[in-house]
Amino acid sequence: MRKDIHPNYQEVLFHDTNADVFFLTRSTAKTKATREYEGTEYPYYPLDISSASHPFYTGEQRKTSTEGRVASFNKRFGAFGGRKKAADTDAAE
User: Residue 11's pLDDT is what?
Assistant: First the structure.
């Protein structure tokens, strides 16, 4: 094996901050932070989401809108179009 061409493959402590779950696995992730876990200090890498908190793996469903994109757009901005039409009819009179 050639020297100095392979990344450092080491045990890294991953922390899913959303679910407050720790994972200890081997990785080439580079990090400056360290944290003690089960009596040993490991490089520490915080995560926003992992299999512990992702809806696909947890089975939790997020509520989605049943109306279409155009309907939601009209619902939000339909009043602006109505005011413009009222101004146009006043000008035509």
Answer: 94
